[in-house]
Known about the structure:
This is DUF4926 domain-containing protein. With about 70 residues, the protein is an alpha+beta fold.
Amino acid sequence: MDVDKLEVGSMVLDKRRDRVGEVMEVTTSWVYLRAFGGGREWVTALEDVEPVTVMARLRARVAAVNAERQRRP
């Protein structure tokens, strides 16, 4: 993926880990991602990310809402 097309806050698919993440930072070689809705950041190579489909974006948001509900008493 072209580094110019990635924006902080956008959602991408980490193909290597098969995980959707929110872009936190982009360098010329690396993309720093975090699970949508919070969580620990991870780093992946720029060539391992691609734009997410609408379905993958929805799935990530539902997972974040469900995780938040489980944290509440």
